[in-house]
Every structure is written in C-alpha cells, then in structure tokens.
User: What shape does this take?
Amino acid sequence: MKLLIFLAISILAVPAWAQDKPAPKEPAKEEAARPAAEPKKQAAAGPRKQRRWNEDARHCLERPSNTEIIKCAEEYL
Assistant: This one.
C-alpha cells in the first residue's frame, strides 16, 4: 500500500520537476532609476503616521455618509 502511494506521488511530481524555470527579468534602465527617486519623495513628505489598527474605530459609524465613514476608518488601517 505504501509503495503504491509512493509511486503515485512520484508520478505526479515528475512533471513538476521537469518544468523549465523562467529566466530572471532584467530591469530596464528607466525602471532602475525610478526606485532611487521614490525614497526621496517619501523623505520629503515627512514622518509617516503611526498605525492605529489596534484602536477602536466604531465612532466612525456615527458619521452621516458612507464617504465620511470610510475616510474616518482609513486612519485605523
């Protein structure tokens, strides 16, 4: 029984091992320059707000419209 299970697993695994791995993509010169510029934007924007995901946001549900509720609740994500 164990031999049968082992053979079945082996037969199913062989095609997975035979697949070719995709070639690694080389980033274009333009794309390589973009990530270097983004950290400067983040640094210039100022300090990041601290996440408040562990705080209670139920008071946002008292807002009159869905848009205001969403804007209020986004602070807690």
Q: What stands out?
A: The mean pLDDT is 76.
